Amino acid sequence: MGFLELFVVASFPVIKVLLITALGLFLALDDISILGDDARKIVNQLVFYVFNPSLVGSNLAKTITFESVVKLWFMPVNILATFILGSAMGWILIKITRPPKHMEGLILGCCSAEIPEAPSPLPAIGNLGNLPMIIIPAICNEKGSPFGEPDLCHQYGMAYASLSMAIGAVFLWSYVYNIMRISSSRVQKEDNTTIDDAYTILLPDEESEKKICGYIIGVVPQIRNFAIGNEAPLRVVEDSASMLGDAAIPTVTLIMGANLLKENNYGEMHGAGLKGSSTPLWTVVGIVAVRYIFLPLLGVAVVKAAIHLSLVHSDCLYQFVLLLQYALPPAMNIGTIAQLFGSGESECSVIMLWTYSLASFAVTLWSTFFMWLVS
Known about the structure:
Family: Belongs to the auxin efflux carrier (TC 2.A.69.2) family.
Function: Involved in cellular auxin homeostasis by regulating auxin metabolism. Regulates intracellular auxin accumulation at the endoplasmic reticulum and thus auxin availability for nuclear auxin signaling.
Strand content: under 5%
Structural class: mainly alpha
Main location: endoplasmic reticulum
InterPro entries: Mem_transp_PIN-like (IPR004776), PILS1/3/4/5/7 (IPR045033)
Keywords: Auxin signaling pathway, Endoplasmic reticulum, Membrane, Transmembrane, Transmembrane helix, Transport
Number of strands: 0
Oligomer: single chain
Number of domains: 1
Radius of gyration: 20 Å
CATH class: Mainly Alpha
């Protein structure tokens, strides 16, 4: 396939995301108010506790076996590499741009955490980090996709994205959370984490436990034979979970648009609009450069080296997912962590606004290049 054809394949899923996101934004407008504050809270809870665990768990249960886990061992290493390389470049960015002290943890978090995380049941927290769960199946269904038969591509692509989601949540709330906690403690006289904060911190762990159920079902043969397959006694349970999971992607995308309006309003309330923003311009430019230029380039080097050393098997879809992990925007739950520590909250709104505004263009270009690279 030529580069132009691959660009078309990569751009259509992003355009679909943007159209449904725009619909969610429209439904959240005050004059429409279908996805107002209360509705967003309820739908976020529904996605967090029902749709998303069903989607991730069913996809993992279908495709993750003991043999595949052995083959996919490099994925957690790759995800950890994105966090370490991103935070290293964030540290360099801090040394170059010299931002206010209270922004240092935020910068490190935005540069390191890009792995898709689960939607949050809390209304004030965005859930834009599910892009691979939306983009990968859309690419699989596009005519001319380099990843082969659409159904198999969708099945395995969703499993890879689900696995990324589960692993990324662990790193986000251990590695990045502690980086931002340590940084904020340097500029605050005392730790301001409250009981409510601790409850919020536990939410992603609960989500990760639900996803791990998919691992158990898939990896243990006795359980897998009992629940997965046309002849399985409990196949109706797996079918029901899949049906619920099908509702996750369109719902998440609608809420994505609604939460964009929430984030913009939040930023304006805190004086973080584009005009007169207290966020240093070169800091924002630096974060965008790290996320969409330097990390993807380093990702190509890391994944290509792993392939050369036979650490990664030859599945081009798996290699594509590994590469895509380096080209995603910052995790929206960075805003959650900033709120927990009361450090860099308003600046976070501006950073998220710019990084996600540019994500459609950047992710499309990198997806095109990655598909060309692995095909």
